[in-house]
Each structure stands twice: as C-alpha cells, then as structure tokens.
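Long-time lurker, finally posting.

We've been working with Carboxypeptidase (Trichoplax adhaerens) and I want a structural starting point before designing mutants. I don't trust myself to interpret raw outputs, so I'm hoping someone here can both generate the structure tokens and explain anything notable. Sequence follows.
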Amino acid sequence: MEKPVAKPKSNLSSYCPSKTIIIAIAISIIIILAIIIPIFIVFGKPYQLQGTSSVTDSYSPSQTTSNPTTATTTVPSSSPQTSYKPILSIPDELWGYYEVRPGAHMFWWFYGYRGSQLRSQMPLILWMSGGPGYSSVGKGNFGQVGPIQLDLKPRNKTLIKRANVLFIDYPVGTGFSYVDKMSAYSRSDNEVAQDLYRTFAHVLHLLPSLQLLPFHLVAESYGGKIGSMFGNLLLQAKKEGRIQCNFISCILSSPLLSTADTIEFAGPYLNAFSLIDAMQSQQLLNQANSIKQYLQQKRGIDATAVLEQSLERMVNISSKANLHNVINYLSENPFTTLVKRNYTDIQSLQNNPTIAPTAAYAVMNNQIRHKLGIVPRHVKFASSNILVYALLRESICYPSIANAEAILNANVSVLIINGQFDAFVNGISLQKTIKKINWPYMKLFQSSKKAVMKDDAGRIVGFIKKYRNLSFMTMIDKGHSPILSVPDSYIGSVQN
Ligand SMILES: *[C@@H]1O[C@H](CO)[C@@H](O)[C@H](O)[C@H]1NC(C)=O
Ligand SMILES: *[C@@H]1O[C@H](CO)[C@@H](O)[C@H](O)[C@H]1NC(C)=O
Ligand SMILES: *[C@@H]1O[C@H](CO)[C@@H](O)[C@H](O)[C@H]1NC(C)=O
Ligand SMILES: *[C@@H]1O[C@H](CO)[C@@H](O)[C@H](O)[C@H]1NC(C)=O
Ligand SMILES: *[C@@H]1O[C@H](CO)[C@@H](O)[C@H](O)[C@H]1NC(C)=O
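Top reply, 14 upvotes:
Generated this for you. Predicted structure of Carboxypeptidase:
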C-alpha cells in the first residue's frame, strides 16, 4: 500500500452530462488555445499527437459477485456492444474511455512499440501502478516508463522501445478514470480487478492484433494484488473461450500479496536494520496478529485500520525511516493523516483533502488532458484519490496468494521482485508468502540455489532464485520499485 494522495473536490451530485458537455466544449477551446500557445513558447513545439485517435465505448451489462478471501473466479461479461470498428493494424498511440459499469468510466492509453523490429512481433505489456489509487497513466506512463516524462521531455529508456504497452487508470476514480455518481466507485478489490479485466478485454477487441502477441503483466505493490486477481480472471476467460490472449508472464514488483505477512515481518526487518528494538518489534507483531484475526472474522475495515496504525507506528519509532526505502528518512509521517481520517465522512473526504495533490502531476491537468481531448471537464487528474482508497478499505488487507497460485499452475511464468531496502513489502515476508503458494514444484524451488545477478558492466545488482516458471529476485540497494532496476536480460531469461 502506498500513501494515497487526495483528489481535489469534484462535485458528483450536481454533475449533468448534457449541459456540461456543451460548456466543456466551449471552455476547452478557450483553454486549449490558452494552454497550447504558452507550450509553444516554453517547449518549442507542443507535445505531438502521433497518428492518434480516441475511442469511447459504452456499457456492457454484467452481474458480478465479490468474495475477497478466495481466488477470483467470476469473469465479467466484456463483449462490447456499441459501434466501433476494430482497428486491424497496431497504432502508434491510442486512448479512450470504456464504461465498465453504469457511470464508471475507465481510461486507457496504448502505445505501439517504436523500434527497428515489426510491431506485430513484439510483446504486449500491461503496466499497473499501485496505491490503491495510484494512476498508471500518471505514475507508470509519465513517471516511470512511457515515452514522455512528467517534464514533457522524451524519456530515453522507455518501455515502448521494447514492447507495445498499455496503461489503464484503475480503480475507477483514479487518474483520468472517473465516476458519474458515488455508487459507481469500486467497493472491493474483486470489483477493481473485474473493471480492469473489462477494460483490457475491450482494448483487445478494439485492437484484435494485440490478441496474438505474447502478453506480459507487470504490476507494482498493491497493483501486484489486483494484477494477480486480474491475471486469474484473464485465465478463466481464456478457458471459457471468451478472450484470446497469449498470457506468457506475470511480473510482480514488491507485490502486496499478503498484508498480514508484510506487517508480521516488518518488525524483524526494521530490528535487523537497527532502526527499532526487540520490544518495538514485538509490539508490531501484536498488530500483525490482530490484522490476521480481523481478517478471519471478515472485519476488513478493522484490519485496514490496524494496518494504517502499524505503518504510522513503524515510521514514528524508527525516527521517520522511509518504509519504501529504509536508508532514507522522511520529514513527516505520511501515515498520520491516513490514521486521522474519518472514513465514514465521505463529504469531508471529498471536500477537505488534507493531503495535497502532487505538484509533479500538474502537467496531467494541462498539456496532457488537452492532448487527449476526451477528458470531461469535471474530471480532475490527481496522482491518486483518497475516496478510492476510503471505499476499498474493507478489502485491502485480504491476501491474493490464491490468484498468484492459479497463474503459476496455469504455466504462466511468475516473477516476484523484492527491493532490499523495502521495509514494507520486505524480502522476509515475500519469501514466506511465496512458500504458501501451492505448486507441485515449490519444494524444489525452495531448495534451488540462488544466483548472482550482474549488470552489463559486471557489477552485482541482485540475486535470483528460479525453478521452472517461478522466479524470485532481490535487487540490492533498491526500495519499493525494484522492477525499474532489473537488467533487461534477466527479464527475458525468466520467461523461457
Ligand atoms: C538522453 O539521451 C541523450 C542523447 O544520448 C542525452 O543527451 C540526454 O542527456 C539523455 N537524457 C536523460 C534524461 O538521460
Ligand atoms: C506518531 O507520532 C505522531 C506525532 O508525534 C503522534 O501524533 C501519533 O500518535 C504517533 N502514533 C503512533 C502510533 O505512535
Ligand atoms: C465520522 O463521520 C461520521 C459521518 O459524518 C460521523 O457520524 C462520525 O461521528 C464521525 N466520527 C468521528 C470520530 O468524528
Ligand atoms: C504445465 O506444464 C507441465 C509441464 O510441461 C504440464 O505437465 C502441465 O500439463 C501443464 N499444465 C497446464 C495447466 O497447462
Ligand atoms: C512454463 O510455462 C510454459 C508456458 O508459458 C510451459 O509451456 C512450460 O511447460 C512451463 N515450464 C515448466 C518448466 O514448467
């Protein structure tokens, strides 16, 4: 779980589509002119539209159920109903909205591979950020791996030089994805995974050539939980013949597969790092135990409240160590505001966000939304959304080990990556979580020898343990986003 950042107020109840659209068009024209002209001055030329069009689609009804404790099995219906023509060649770039449930609009953004090889021979990657509520478009695309950085300069080491890449802003309410009414927000992780699946299936229907490409799922942190749920839905849908997709691998970077495990071992981890003492470690263990008990009693909100408190305590007692990278310190405790929130007071969550949106993402509400041209005016991009988080508190702590298990047993290769300095999704807990996966070769995996990983210059960057389709990597000197520092050659090697 990452610290959610509040989304600025959007007045949902007074939103009226027909009026707003007319006003929005008029105002956007004025704003576009006002924005584009200064960009010309600042950046020389505006951020280019490269052979692009946008697509919106509408609701396809489906009934879904939700049970956070077990592997996800209900595959939502995804057959797109409305008129659009499938696009046969793989485009340079394409984005759109898909209404996954009435009033729930998911935003997706696809980039075709750019390089010397044939686009149709390169894989497809779905890149998922964490949160809950971190925008994959803001953080993943602009912040980490897309062709353009948040400062609008081109990124040298972009993923689209290696693959076709898709970003989806999930859960709905995050990034450019939005709801028309409060009731359209996701209320469970299962629903989040189903919304994601529906959007993914929509994009594959729209761009059928993607169905044949080797598909790799890459997910970070809480994205690792939703990603494993999504991956299992995808496999079920494949089995039922409802989707064609060549699902090859699932890469989970610091995945929050089991919150109880992460908290159980955060104490020993911080203690081994001399940041807390044995007594403090024991107190954290008590909190981990109450998370487990609450989960057994199906009291998800109570479990999440303890999670928030234990994160706050860890930062407090370690002199504000950054749990995502413990060799650094924070100036203030990011979890104090999370603990103090009144999560039943939705109005105050909407009206009084005490955590400000990150300034780094301002560009999303200006140049980028104008480039996209389809983001409704009332939708304000925020790097994450406190309401999304608030409404998911019931399900955040439930584990998703069963989904990772289903993916591995379906012969999809699974790579789990740990950052050595990540105290939250720490290496000890990940090893324990992996051990719980029921897989015929788990004993052989456990007893296989770990190998040293080196970068191109021959420096040691980490360790890898691999048996058949399961790999576990530890990136040394790295924190909560270890995927970004794995040398390319190793990513390929674990995928047969
Ligand atoms: C990207 O590559 C160019 C040319 O190789 C180099 O001048 C520039 O500094 C690089 N930018 C970044 C952000 O690394
Ligand atoms: C953490 O420190 C803050 C500020 O000093 C304090 O208000 C809060 O009660 C502390 N929380 C815990 C769990 O120790
Ligand atoms: C939280 O908000 C709800 C709804 O506004 C209110 O009934 C409740 O008293 C508040 N709780 C606290 C502890 O302030
Ligand atoms: C996975 O691969 C193994 C070994 O190649 C094979 O025996 C098994 O049937 C496969 N399972 C599935 C679900 O494809
Ligand atoms: C790994 O998964 C692939 C499918 O992606 C399957 O063909 C293969 O048998 C599996 N490998 C092993 C060693 O189990």
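Before you design anything, note these points.
The CA atoms of residues 14 and 181 lie 10 Å apart.
The radius of gyration is 22 Å.
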